[in-house]
């Protein structure tokens, strides 16, 4: 099984450092994961030296896990597709993309962001049981409790007619 | 002399305020809807604010009737080549195989405020941005008015960030002078659950429809509308 960690176009040092910690890697392994792919963006962490773009990933062995990390790829769609669990920052674009693919998602809001509306988004989606929300500190516990279970609600598909209806109504076509 | 000047300023100020008040939208039940025949067309303009703003705007447009809403005008900020590429992808999905000239164009406008730009220089860059918006929203359509090409947009779709406010003000420029002006729809980001963005707060009194994606915001901001996730 494969877990994919992503911070999007931002940097999120605390999350990436935590993912590389023994405690989180052990938790993943206990859940049956064998591979962890980390899109680290511009985050600073101990192993960051040598991290380049997605075409040149760094691959290391950690415990019984294969950990692959790189900074960016033009599109992450393929990574979401191949993952059994996604752990991500609370960017709304990432969240929507992953939920629409029906992948189990743990969202970790970045507490160092000013005007933290990302926390609100994570909270409301967790309340409605579409995602699991976790703090950086609780990540290993969340992984163990959650384990990529399919107990989450399926997020509604994209509905292109909603805006079309608003537009038609506004312009007098309805 | 001074008195005459002061009186003139007051009168002009009052007339200006009254004119602005008169063109502000009346939302809700009083909204004045003109019926259109189903086979007529509407020209559409949209601002793509890069990153998440662009993704959300293009997702919304992906479901529209492209034969009805044309020609389409995409405003992007300077240097935002990624949004231009995404427009091309969307437009390819609209193509119906007819050999017509493209039903859209991409227009670049200067940013009202760059990321990390000091606050005190913002009025200046915002003015430059506004002038560009007025050119595309007012002057160019006016110059081409008789040729039937590049007409005034009928509807303007905005979803932030700051630069979209300049397009909104340019549309008001048209309204102020009694020129054809677009109906304005603003859609707040899916990321805004409990509090509006700054551009949302500023633009709210100016737009014809203010759409949010979380019901909590309707409770806090009467006059806004929620139809769930539209992106």
From TrEMBL, chain A:
It is an enzyme of class 2 (transferase). One of its GO terms (molecular function) is N-acetylglucosaminyldiphosphodolichol N-acetylglucosaminyltransferase activity. Its EC number is 2.4.1.141. It is found in: Endoplasmic reticulum. Its main location: endoplasmic reticulum. Pfam families: Glyco_tran_28_C (PF04101). Gene3D superfamilies: Glycogen Phosphorylase B. It catalyses: an N-acetyl-alpha-D-glucosaminyl-diphospho-di-trans,poly-cis-dolichol + UDP-N-acetyl-alpha-D-glucosamine = an N,N'-diacetylchitobiosyl-diphospho-di-trans,poly-cis-dolichol + UDP + H(+). It comes from the Eukaryota. Keywords: Endoplasmic reticulum, Glycosyltransferase, Transferase. Residues 4-145 form the Glycosyl transferase family 28 C-terminal domain. This is UDP-N-acetylglucosamine transferase subunit ALG13. Involved in protein N-glycosylation. Essential for the second step of the dolichol-linked oligosaccharide pathway. The lineage of its organism: Eukaryota, Fungi, Dikarya, Basidiomycota, Agaricomycotina. It comes from Coprinopsis marcescibilis (Agaric fungus). GO terms for biological process: dolichol-linked oligosaccharide biosynthetic process. PANTHER family: GLYCOSYL TRANSFERASE-RELATED (PTHR12867), N-ACETYLGLUCOSAMINYLDIPHOSPHODOLICHOL N-ACETYLGLUCOSAMINYLTRANSFERASE (PTHR12867:SF6). One of its GO terms (cellular component) is endoplasmic reticulum.
Automatic annotation (TrEMBL), chain B:
It is a single-pass membrane protein. Keywords: Endoplasmic reticulum, Membrane, Transferase, Transmembrane, Transmembrane helix. One of its GO terms (biological process) is dolichol-linked oligosaccharide biosynthetic process. One of its GO terms (cellular component) is UDP-N-acetylglucosamine transferase complex. It comes from the Eukaryota. GO terms for molecular function: N-acetylglucosaminyldiphosphodolichol N-acetylglucosaminyltransferase activity. It is found in: Endoplasmic reticulum membrane; Nucleus membrane. InterPro entries: Oligosacch_biosynth_Alg14 (IPR013969). It holds the Pfam family Alg14. Involved in protein N-glycosylation. Essential for the second step of the dolichol-linked oligosaccharide pathway. Anchors the catalytic subunit ALG13 to the ER. Belongs to the ALG14 family. Heterodimer with ALG13 to form a functional enzyme. This is UDP-N-acetylglucosamine transferase subunit ALG14.
């Amino acid at each position: 099984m494969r877990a994919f960690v992503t911070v999007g176009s931002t940097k999120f040092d605390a999350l990436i450092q935590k993912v590389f910690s023994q405690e989180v890697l052990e938790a993943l392994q206990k859940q049956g994961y064998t591979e962890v792919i980390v899109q680290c963006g511009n985050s600073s962490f101990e192993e960051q030296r040598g991290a380049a773009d997605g075409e040149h990933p760094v691959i290391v062995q950690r415990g019984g896990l294969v950990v692959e990390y790189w900074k960016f790829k033009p599109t992450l769609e393929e990574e979401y597709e191949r993952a059994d669990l996604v752990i991500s920052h609370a960017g709304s674009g990432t969240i929507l993309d992953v939920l629409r693919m029906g992948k189990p998602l743990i969202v970790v809001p970045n507490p160092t962001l000013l005007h933290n509306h990302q926390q609100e988004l994570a909270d409301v989606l967790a309340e409605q049981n579409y995602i699991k929300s976790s703090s950086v500190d609780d990540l290993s516990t969340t992984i163990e409790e959650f384990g990529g279970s399919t107990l989450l609600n399926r997020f509604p598909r994209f509905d292109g007619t909603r805006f079309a209806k608003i537009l038609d109504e506004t312009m007098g076509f309805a | 002399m001074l008195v005459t000047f002061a009186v003139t300023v007051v009168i002009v100020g009052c007339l200006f305020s009254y004119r602005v008040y008169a063109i502000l939208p009346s939302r809700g039940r009083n909204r004045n809807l003109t019926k259109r025949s189903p086979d007529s067309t509407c020209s559409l303009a949209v601002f793509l604010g890069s990153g998440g703003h662009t993704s959300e705007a293009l997702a919304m447009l992906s479901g529209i009737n492209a034969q009805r809403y044309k020609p389409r005008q995409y405003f992007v900020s300077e240097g935002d080549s990624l949004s231009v590429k995404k427009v091309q992808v969307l437009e390819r999905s609209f193509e119906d195989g007819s050999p017509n000239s493209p039903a859209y164009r991409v227009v670049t406008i200067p940013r009202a405020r760059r990321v990390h730009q000091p606050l005190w220089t913002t009025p200046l860059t915002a003015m430059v941005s506004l002038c560009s918006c007025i050119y595309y929203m007012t002057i160019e359509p006016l110059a081409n008015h008789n040729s039937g090409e590049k007409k005034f947009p009928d509807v303007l779709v905005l979803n932030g960030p700051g630069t979209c406010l300049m397009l909104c003000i340019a549309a008001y420029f048209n309204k102020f002078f009694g020129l054809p002006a677009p109906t304005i729809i603003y859609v707040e980001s899916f990321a805004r659950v409990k509090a509006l963005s700054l551009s949302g707060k500023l633009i709210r009194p100016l737009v014809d429809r203010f759409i949010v994606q979380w019901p909590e915001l309707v409770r806090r901001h009467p006059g806004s509308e929620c139809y769930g996730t539209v992106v």
